[in-house]
Amino acid sequence: MGKEGTPQITKRTTRSSSSTADSSNAIATKTVNAPRPPSIISDLTFGEEPMSLDALLSSFPGRRLQVLELLQLIGPLNSPMFPLFIYGGASTGKSSVVLQVFKHLNRPFVYSSCRTCYSPRILFESMLNQLLLHRRNAGNGYSSMKRCERPADFVNFLREALTDVVNNLKEPIKKASSKELLKPGHGRMIYLIFDHLELIQEWDKSSGIILLLFNLFDILKMSEVGLIFISNVSPDAYYSNTGHVEPIPVYFPDYTEDNLCQIFMRNQANPKLFSSFLDVVLRPFCRMTRRVDELSAAFPLLFKKYCEPLSDLGLAPTEDMKRKLFSHLQPHIAPSLNEIFRVQYESRVDVKAKEKVRRKGNIRKLGIEDALDEIDFHMSISAKYLLISAFLASRNPATLDAALFDSMGGSDNRKRKRKASQTSMEKKENTENELLMRGPGTFPLERLLAIFQCLTSVGEGSLEEGQREDGGVMAEDGDVGLMSDVLLQLSTLCNANFIMKGGTCPLEGSTRYRSTVSEEMALKVARSLRFPLSKYLYRR
Amino acid sequence: MAPSAIPDSPSPPTVSDNEENNLQQFFVLHKALPRKSSRKVSGPGKTRRKIDLSPASPKSEGKSGANHVEEEDDCYYEQLRVEAFNAVWSEIETKIKDVLREINISAFDEVHRWVCECFSTIKSSGTPEAVRPYPLVTDINCKQIFTALVLTKNIEFVDDLLTFEELGLHLKSKGCHVANLSSLDFSAKNGIGGCLRSLLRQLVMVSLDAPDIAVLASWYSEQENYNNPSVVIIGDMERCSGSVLAEFILMLREWVVKIPIILVMGVATTIDAPRNLLPSNALKHLCPFKFSLGSPYERMDAIVEAVLLKTCFGFNVGHKVVFFLRNYFQRQDGTVTSFIKAFKIACAKHFSTEPLSFLCRDLLNDDSEGFWSEKCALLPEVMLKNAFSFPSCQRCKMTEGTSENLASGLFELKKLQKNWSSVVLCLHEVGKFQKMHLLDIVCEALDPATYNKNASDNHLGIGNGFSKSSPSDCCLHAGQYSGKSKGGIISQVVRRVRDLPVALLSQLLNIWRKHTKGISEIHDKVKELQSMLKFEDNGKSLKQDSKDTPKRPSSRGTMNMEDKKTVNEKSATLMEYMIVNYLQPIECIPFHEIICFKNVELLQSALIGDPRRTVQVDLLKSHNFLQCSCCSRSGNVLLPSMHDTSIMYTLAQEHGDLINLHDWFQSFKEILLGPSTKGKHKMKQSPLSKKRKDRDEPHDISEASIQARFCRAVTELQITGLLRMPSKRRPDYVQRVAFGL
Amino acid sequence: MEGDNPAQRAIALLRRRLCNPNYIFSLLSDSPDSNYSKLKFIISNSVTETCNNSILLLGPRGCGKIAVLELVLKDLQVEHPDMISVVRLNGLLHSDDTCALKEIARQLCLEHQLLFSKMASSDDNAQFMIAMLRECGLAHKTIIIVLDEFDLFTQGKQRLLYSLLDAMQSVTSQAVVIGVSCRLDADQLLEKRVRSRFSHRKLLFLPPSNRDVQRLLEDILLLPTDSKFPNDYVTEFNARLHNILGDQQFIEILTTLSNTDPSVNYLLRFIFQAVCYMDLETGFLSLENFKNAISSIQRQPKIESLQDCSVLELYILVCMRRQEVKEQTSYNFNSVMKEYKSIHDSFQTSDYYAHNVCLRAFEHLLQRELICFTDNRVHSQSVEFRPVKLLISAQELHQGLKLNCSCPVILQKLMDRES
C-alpha cells in the first residue's frame, strides 16, 4: 500500500484525535533534536497537554464503559489502588486505552511490554532504567543502569528506585523546573504497567516471574505504587497451585459491528462514500473476523476497487451510484474474504505478469500469481526428481514400493487400488482419519534414495530422448550426474522447506524425513518433467 | 586446501548451515563439497605447481629427453602459458562480474526507490519520540511493516548470497542503514536474542549480552542516524525458523514508525512461502511488495553471450564440454556460480595441457595478419610441428607446416569464430521469441556432427566456396539441412522465422543488421530484406488509403498475406544460408585446438566428484594417497602397517550390510597381529620406521590398544557416514549404509 | 483538586483504608483470643526469655497472616526497642539457598550498619549469618527471621532451613524463625533432620466469620464523624450505608461472595470495587455499586470470549465438538476442516471460507484459549497436523452460542441435535 498513498483506513487502528498527534509530534521533534535533562515529570508522564475526558472518550468508540471503569478504579489523585488486570482479545485497544487514560490523567507511569522485553532480565532492567531516568546512548555504550537478573535483586532495586521517585514526587521543590511546578496534579502515585503478560508463561514453565508480578503489590507494601497488568488471555490462564492474590479484572470485549463501523468511519475523507462502502463490506467480513487490524489490512485495497469507477471522490454517492459501485465491487469481495496475505507488485514486469493473470480471468487471488501452470523458480532436474520421490515416499505406504517400482509399475498399481477399494467402509474411514492425523508420512534416507534411483532410471528415458544422438557421454552422464551429489540436493530441498527433517541425531542414522509439498506443487513439478506422477500415486 | 578456494566456493553457507542444524546425515558429504569445489578452483594452483616442476603435457614429456635449449625455452613457454592464463581468465572474470552486476542493478534501483517511498510514507505519519518504551498511541497512517519479497527464482541460494550482499552495499551507498541478516540469526536455538544481537552488532556496532530492541530505538533517535531509513535484509527467508521470525516481526511491530525498519526478504521458492512459514498474527503486520531478480537462465544466457560470443577471449570450449556444462547446469545445481567455476577449471586445464595455448593471449588483443606472421616466425620447430600435427589441420590437408600458414590459419580461425558467433546471435534473436535458451542454441551450433553432415550434403569445402553457393540455390540444401536434424533447435528457429508476424520480423531484421556487421555479404542481404519489408508496408498503407469496394478485401488479404510470406521465406532462406555457410563450429576449423578446450572427462571428474563414492574408493586403496614405503607394494593383501580405517573398511567389504562387531574385531585383530613374520624380514629390507617397529612385535600391541584403535576406526567410518551404529534391537551389529557405489 | 468535593475525599479515605492491611487487621485483632495476641505472646516470650523458637503461620491466602505478623512485629519493636532485628525472606524470591543467604546477610548488614559485599560467597554469608546469630545472642538481641511462602523454601535440599535451625540449637543464639505459608501441610514438607529441629507450634488463620465481616464492613465503610467532612454529609452517608448493610439483597451478595472465596482480601477487593463505582455526583454508596462490583469480580472468561467469537470461529468450535461427540480419540485441524466441509455440503451454509482463512480463525481460537494442542512438542509439525482439544464443556458452548447474537441458527440446531 506504500505506492498508492497510505490507506485511509489503517489510520483508524489507533483511535486518537489528530490534534493530540500534532502536539505530540511537535514535542517529539524537539526532544529528538535536543534531549532534555532527565526529570521525573517529563520522563514518566506524557510531556504534553493532558487530553480532556471528552477527547479521550470520543477517541475510543465502543470503549466508553471500559474507559470510565478504568478511571474509577485508578481513582482520584493520591488514592492508592489494588492491582488491575486488564484482559481481552487481540486488538481490542487495551494498551492504547490504558496509555491514553494516563495521558488524560497526566500522572507518572512506567510501561514495559513483555514482547519487547523478551526475557526476565530485560524486563527488569528496562523497568529500572525508566525509574532511574537512565537514557541509553553511545556515551554509556547503550548499557542499562543496573545489571539485574535475579528476581530478588530486582525487588531490592525496585524498592530503592520507587522510594526515591515517590519522595521526589512528594516534595515539589525537587521538581526540575518551575514550569512543571505550576502544572498541578501529577499526584504522589506511580504506576507500573506490564503489557503482554501472557508471553511470560512461555519464558519459563515454572511460572516464577508471573507469581512474582502478581504478588509484587504485597511484597513491596508501598501504597504509592499502582500495578496494572495487560493480557490477551483471561485470568484463569494464570492459575498456579498455591494460588496468588487475584488482581481486579477489567474486561475488554471485542468490538461489535457498530463499533467497528464507528472506528472505521473516524476522520474519513468522504464519510458518505465510505459508509456506503462499509455497508457493503463490513458485514461479510465480520462473520469471519472482527479484529480491527486484520480488517484494516483488508479494506484499503477493496476501497480503491470500490472507488475505481468514480471520477471525483469528493461527492456523496446517490442511490443508483451506490448500486453501480456495489455491482462493480461484488466480484472482488469473495476473493479478498478468502485471502489473508496480499502481495503487491512493484516492478513493471510483475505488473504485466499480474495483468496476464487477470486477463486469464482468475481475479480469484488478488495479486498472487500462483495460478500460473509452471513453477516460476529454477530447480535442477535431479532436485525435481528428488522432490517427487520424497513426495511419493511420504504418500505411499512403504510396503507398496516394491510393487510400484518393480519394472514399470502402472498395472500392478491399479490392482492395488482395487484391493484398497474392496476394504470395508469403516476401515477405510479409519485409515482416512489416520492419514488426516498423521499428515504426510516419514521415511528414512535409504528409502528415499531407492525410490529416487527407480524414478531416475525410468525418467531418464523421457529426459534423454532429445540428446540420444549426442553420443554416449551424455547418456551416461545422465545417470551418474543425477545420482552423484543427490544428498546436496536433499539439503537444498530441506532448506527450501519442501522436505522436513526429523530431529533425531543423524549419527544414529535414524533421521527420518517428511515431504511437506502440497500435491499440486508436486504435480506441477512432475508436469515440468513430463513425469507420470499420478500413475505412481497410491490412492486409498 | 587452496585458500583461493574460499571466496567463490559455496562452502561457507553449506558448512555454517550444518553448524546450524547440527550435523545432518550428509554432514561428511557436505564437508566434501568445499573440498571438491576447492579441488576445482585450485585447478590453476595445481597446474601452476605442475608447470613449475614442468613435465606437464605428454608432448613436453616426450621431448624431455632432448637438449637443454629446448628444455629451458620449454620452461619459458610454460611461463608464457601461465601468464596467458592469468591474463585471459582475469579478462573473463571481470567481464562476467560486469554482466551479473548489469543484470541486478535495475532490480536494486527499484528496491531502493521503493525503500525511499516507504520511508517517506512512514515519516509522513509524524516523528514520535523513539526512546519512550510504550507503543505509539498517537494517530499514525500505517502500522504495518513494509516488506519487500525478492524472488530469487532459484531454489539454490548460493548465487544469491552475493546478490544480497551487493544489494546491501548498494543501499548503504545510497545512505540507508543496512543490516544483512541470514537464516543463522533466526535459528530456533538462539531464539530472538540471537537475531537482535546480530542486528545490534551491525547497526549500532555494539554487542550486548542482553540485546534489547530499545537500544536500537535510542540509537536511531540520535542525531546523525535520524533521517535515514534502516533496512534489514534477510537473504534466505525460507530457512529461518518461523517462530523466531514471527517473534521478530511482532517486536518490530511494537516499535513501528519509531524505528522505521524496512524488511527485505529473499524468497527462493514461491511468493506464498512466507504464508506457509509465518503464523497469521505475524503475517498481518507485513505489508508485502514483490520484486524479482533475473532468473538463473537469464543470467546464464547473459554470461554465455558475453563470454563465448560477444568478445573473443581467445579461449573457447568444444561442443561436448558445453553440452556437459549445460547438463550440469540443468541437472546438478542450477547455479551460475558452479557454471563459472566449471568454466574456470576448463580454462585452467586447457592452459596447463595445451602447449601452444599461450598464443591465445594475443588472440585476445591484437589481430593483424602481419602481427601473427611475425609472432609465429618466432616459434621453434617443435611448436610448429605440434601445431601441424593437430588432427584438425590434418583433416584439411595443410601439408607444409610453415609459420605463415599457421599465422594465416590462426587469423582465419579468429575470423570464422567471429562469423560463427554473429550467426549464433542472430539465431538467438529468433530464439528469444519462443523463450529458447542461448545455451541450448550454442550447444547445437557447436555440434560438429551436424555441421559436417550439411557440409558433405551440399558439397562445400570448408575453407573455400561461400562464393560458390548463392543463397538462391542454397535454400534446397538448407531444406535438406532442416530435414536432417528434425526437432533440432536450429531448425525450429528457421521454421519460426517462416511464420513470424511482420512487426516482429522487421525488428528482428534490424537486430540482425546490427549483428551481421562483420559479414558484409549477409549484411547487404539483410538490408535488402528490410527495404523489401518497408516497401511492402508502404504498399499496404497505400492500399488502405485507396478506398475500395467491400468485396475485394479477401483477395487483398491473401495478396499481402503471400507477399508477406515471400519476405518471411526470404529471411528464412537467408537464415539457413547463414547457418550452412557461416555456422562453422570451432571444432571444424584448423588449429582450433590452440584455443579450444575439448577434454570433457577431465572436467567431469573435477565437477561431479561423487564424494561418497570417492570416499569409499579412497578408503579401499589408501596407500595411493599416503605413499608410505611400508605398504606400497602390497597388492590387495592387508598389512598391519596400513591405516586402521582403511583396513577396517576393506574387511567390512566381506560382510553383508549387517556386520557382526565381534567377527569384525577378530579379523581386524589378526590382521594387526598376523603377519608379524612377514613384518620381520620386511624390516630388514626397509629402513626401520618407528611406526612399524611396534607393529611387528605382536606382544607389545596390547589388547587394549587394539580395541582402542578398533573403536576409533569404527567411529571414523561412522562419521564418514558409511556405518550406522548398533540399534537397540541388535546391539552387536553395525549396519553399512553404502549406496551410490 | 483535593479537598473541594467531600465525595472525592470520602473515596480517597476509603481507598486508603482498604489498601492498608495494617488498618484492616488491626480492626480484627483486638479480641484476646485472636491470632494477633497469640502470636504476640509467643514472640514476646522468646524475646524476653532469650530463647530460640520457631512458628508456622498457616492458612488460606488473604487471611492476613503477614499483616498480623507485621502488626505484632511493629508493636514489639516499640515495646522492646533495639532488642529485635527482623529479617524478611520470601519464597518467591529467595527459594534458592545462595540467594537466600545473601539476602539474609544483606539485611543483617543493613540492620547493624555493617557494609555488605556483593562478592561474598554463599559460604561466607553462611558463616556471617551464624556469627551474627551468636553475637546477637550474646547481646541478648533476638533475630526474627520471617520466611514468607514457606513451602517454597522446602523445595530442594533445604540447606538453608537446616543451617538456620541447626544454628539455633546452640544455647548462645537467640532467634525466632517464623514460617508463613498457605499450605496447611507445610510442616509435612520438611525433611526429617529439619523437622526434628523444628518446634511444631502452628497458628491457623481462618477466614472471618460473618459477624466479623459485618463489623469489618462497618468499620471500613463508615466515615468518621469527627473529621473535616461536612457533618450532614457524614450522617447522610452513614445512614445510607446502614440501610445497604441491612438490605437483604446485600446479604445475599455477601453470601455468594463468601461462597466463592471467604478470605478477607477477596472481600476487600469487592468493597474496593464498589467504592470505586461510587457515583461522584450524589457522593453516596448505593446498592447498585455493590451489585456491579459482584458482577465484575465474578467473571466467566470462557463465556465472554465465546461471545467474542466470530461466526467462522463458532463453526470451528462446533465442528470440534462434533468430532468429540463422534468419540474421535484425537483430531486436528485437518479433520476439523473435513467436518466443516461436510457441514457445508449438507446444509449449503453461506459462510464457507478458504483454508488459510479458517487456519487464521483456528489460531484466533488458540489465542483465546478456547482450544489447545494436546501435544506439547512445538516444532514437531505444522499446525494443521497437531492434535487439539476443546477447553470448554458442551454446556458452555451451548450457552455461548445462545448468548452470541451473531450466531447462525444452523449451529444451534447442530448442537441441539447432538445433545
TrEMBL record, chain A:
Residues 379-537 form the Origin recognition complex subunit 5 C-terminal domain. It is found in: Nucleus. Residues 1-34, 410-437 are annotated as: Disordered. Its main location: nucleus. It holds the Pfam family ORC5_C. GO terms for biological process: DNA replication. Residues 15-29 have a biased composition (Low complexity). It comes from the Eukaryota. Residues 275-327 form the ORC5 lid domain. GO terms for cellular component: nucleus; origin recognition complex. Keywords: ATP-binding, DNA replication, Nucleotide-binding, Nucleus. Residues 60-222 form the Orc1-like AAA ATPase domain. Belongs to the ORC5 family. PANTHER family: ORIGIN RECOGNITION COMPLEX SUBUNIT 5. This is Origin of replication complex subunit 5. It comes from Nelumbo nucifera.
From TrEMBL, chain B:
The keyword Nucleus applies. Residues 612-739 form the Origin recognition complex subunit 3 winged helix C-terminal domain. Residues 539-551 have a biased composition (Basic and acidic residues). One of its GO terms (cellular component) is nuclear origin of replication recognition complex. Keywords: DNA replication, DNA-binding, Nucleus. Residues 1-69, 539-564, 677-699 are annotated as: Disordered. Residues 678-693 have a biased composition (Basic residues). Belongs to the ORC3 family. This is Origin of replication complex subunit 3. It comes from Nelumbo nucifera (Sacred lotus).
UniProtKB/TrEMBL annotation, chain C:
Its main location: nucleus. It comes from the Eukaryota. It is found in: Nucleus. One of its GO terms (biological process) is DNA replication. SUPFAM superfamilies: P-loop containing nucleoside triphosphate hydrolases (SSF52540). Residues 216-400 form the Origin recognition complex subunit 4 C-terminal domain. It holds the Pfam family AAA. The keyword Nucleotide-binding applies. InterPro entries: ATPase_AAA_core, ORC4, ORC4_C, P-loop_NTPase. One of its GO terms (cellular component) is nucleus. The keyword Thylakoid does not apply. Component of the origin recognition complex (ORC) that binds origins of replication. DNA-binding is ATP-dependent. The specific DNA sequences that define origins of replication have not been identified yet. ORC is required to assemble the pre-replication complex necessary to initiate DNA replication. Belongs to the ORC4 family. This is Origin of replication complex subunit 4.
